[in-house]
Amino acid sequence: MSFIDSVLLGLSLVGNVEAFASLFIGIVIGVIGGAIPGLSATMAVALTLPFTFAMSPINGILLLLGVYKGGIFGGCIPAILIKTPGTPASSATILDGYPMAERGESGRALGMALWASCTADLVSNLSLILFAGWLASFALKFGPPEFFTLILFSLTIIAGVSGNSLLRGALSAILGLLLATVGLDLVYGTNRFTFGDPNLMGGLNFIAVLIGLFAVPEIIAMAAHPTAHLGKARSLGKTWVSFDDYRRSLKTILRGSMIGVFLGSIPGIGAAPAAFLSYSEARRTSKNRANFGKGEIEGVAASEAGNNGVAGATLIPLLALGVPGDVITAIIIGAFMIHGLQPGPMMFVLNVDLIYGLLIGLVVSSVFLLIVGTVAIRGFKYVADIPRRILMPAVLVLCVFGVFAVNNNIFDVAVMFAMGWLGYLMMRAEIPAAPFLIAFILGPLLEDNFRQSMLMSGSDLSILARGPITWFFWAATVLAIVAIVRSTMRPDTQAG
Amino acid sequence: MKLKSFMAGLACMLSAGAALAEYPERPINMVIPYGAGGATDISARTIAEPLGKAVGSALVMSNITGAGGVTGSVAVQNARADGYTMLFARVGSHSVNPAMKATLPYTLDDFRFVTVYEINPVACAVRPGGGIESMDDLVAKVAEGGVTYSSSGVGSLLHLAGAMVLSEFGVENPLEDATHIPLQGGGAAATAVLNGTATFICTNSSALASFVANGQLKPLMVTTAEPVPGFDAPTANDLGKPGLNALVGWTGIAGPAGLPDEVAAKWGTWMAEAAGDETFVQQMTARGSVIDVMSPEDANAFIQNQYEKFRALVDELGMRIEG
Hints:
The complex is a heterodimer of chains A (496) and B (323).
Chain A: H1 3-14, H2 17-35, H3 40-52, H4 57-74, H5 76-82, H6 91-102, H7 106-139, H8 144-154, H9 157-160, H10 166-180, E1 183-184, E2 191-192, H11 198-201, H12 206-224, H13 243-265, H14 271-285, H15 297-313, H16 315-321, H17 327-338, H18 347-350, H19 352-380, H20 382-385, H21 388-407, H22 410-428, H23 434-457, H24 468-489
Antiparallel strand pairs in A: 1-2
Helix pairs in contact in A: 1-19, 2-3, 2-4, 2-19, 3-4, 3-17, 4-15, 4-17, 4-19, 5-6, 5-7, 6-7, 6-15, 7-13, 7-15, 7-16, 7-19, 8-23, 8-24, 10-23, 12-21, 12-22, 13-14, 13-15, 14-15, 21-22
Chain B: H1 2-20, E1 28-32, H2 39-55, E2 59-63, H3 70-77, E3 85-90, H4 91-100, E4 111-120, E5 122-126, H5 135-144, E6 147-151, H6 157-168, H7 174-177, E7 178-182, H8 186-194, E8 200-204, H9 205-213, E9 218-222, E10 249-256, H10 261-274, H11 278-286, E11 290-291, H12 296-317
Parallel strand pairs in B: 1-2, 1-3, 6-7
Antiparallel strand pairs in B: 3-10, 4-10, 4-11, 5-8, 5-9
Helix pairs in contact in B: 2-10, 4-12
């Protein structure tokens, strides 16, 4: 069967109103779900899943993919407007998105986030169509030793988000690593720092930590100084992202998309590290690096390109190998199975119409995302006009609700407030929160993969340099550290 | 005085109301102790629809996740035993974990099971082309050394299954002779065998079905007495190891220990009705599950039996986790 035949078969499956309507509705649900702090893209997909049982397979899966893509974008709306990431993947967007909103440029930031997201989405989908087989076999080469070196390299991005003081950044990262050790030991299954409380056995809930660290300190600061913000312009204003902004950030967006595609195709990394890595690379190479963290539009573009670049690429291991890349694709695999479909190499033979139908749907989804996103930004822009004395208590309610809803557990709300006070103290001491978060995400992965490698090799360290992939990341790590040391040593440039 | 008597009257009415009114008079909270999209979650949400019809009252499904099902189980353990907070219990949270973990905040005695409705056969598989074609090859390879098996974490069914299968096939010290590699979740555990990180995996057949169908993994055996569709592999009984029949996954529903008899009896009738639903059966069997609705008594006996088997093995091999 020729390529054209396959495409036509796919078109016959999705070339109807229902298929596109499912995709469109999915994106709408996703954007709204992603925009509600605590609901997150994962939860939105999980809640949509039961509705797909009664639908035809292609429509059901398109609906879920729409929710997924919409959710990853939707997370940037509260991240920019109220400093609360709607989904973990959008936490890097806060770094520059929120300062822009404070300056009265939230329209510009949201617009750039949308354009960057759609561009990255398109790149990601095209990579899925063109390089799925190649990327999948590459991803399968990633065992624990390769993961270990990749994550070790990713930890160097801490330097990129530390602001002006590397020491404060490192302190923040150490705090994050420390709190990430709470829970059950991976290899022995023993309790670590749980103090006999079953609530701590699962570790600190990630969403609770995330919201506590970013949103709650703002609220505490507002309560401490209710009038500090007066006189600052804070509205959507008339600013909208210009084509010139987009053109200047295009290189960053494309690089971010590539990083997203690469990390997305490897199972087990997820969108948040991709966003941070893209952000840190953008900062490292940008002419405006001094402005990063203070409201640089390129930072928003980098972060959103990084996380949306993941969204299409996570389907590579799913379709080509039947392996879920993250929690969301694990749920989507469930939808395949409910309909008696088994993702994997055979699907390209048995269900080629479905595969091509999905690919066509995915390409269309980037366009739908642009439409839905534009409407959503216009709808949500009124948030920026709400006076802070009304907005902040509302945000607090939303945070409490969101964190509770993640796990239906009041303990998580307590964790959020505890982290909120920690975040407030860190804010007062000018300790950046982003390194904390990166360490909190990557620390456990680093530890787990190190210990899995040791189990594989019988505690022989040489397994950590067992092949070209590990050598590559070791070299990259060394180069990154050298670059960090050099830029710190030179006082005339902005230290990183 | 007036207030006091009013309060007394109110309390009286409430307690009388609770005793007289037909259970359930308000929505029932159903706790799913595992994450959205996992095997337990999908199973629970699939039965929720016919079950809601049978109950005639809304079922409020909530995922309370963490620590391999412990967090959600504790939430139900500590709830009032009035039948309004029930748990979707799973093999990991309610027979492997209690058997393996000394510091678990609950035991089987803290729960009363009203049903087990789904059985998941367990299959063992390896990567094809690695020279392992049968269980005998695997056991021979273990003797050579360097064999590893992947699991979704310490205290998971997969962890116990790997050790139990090797032990049944005569490997004297499976903990020393084969290395257990815990990974982050069932998907990662299967991937580990695909990319050669681990030699073999024993897990629910549904988790392996697509890999087996695609020829990415080769099944060596299934633990049930009956063959599993799609798995071209001998059963435990074919291999003369009927002792492995106890090694199956399951999903059931439990309440706190003091659950009244009437409530348990009601659940028995509801489940019988709900599990007869055609769409439910069709959706579950498509995922590789066997629908087998047990009465409250049978469910308790089934779980107790599996727990004791697991516990004996754990003690024999010294797998108990004391920390």
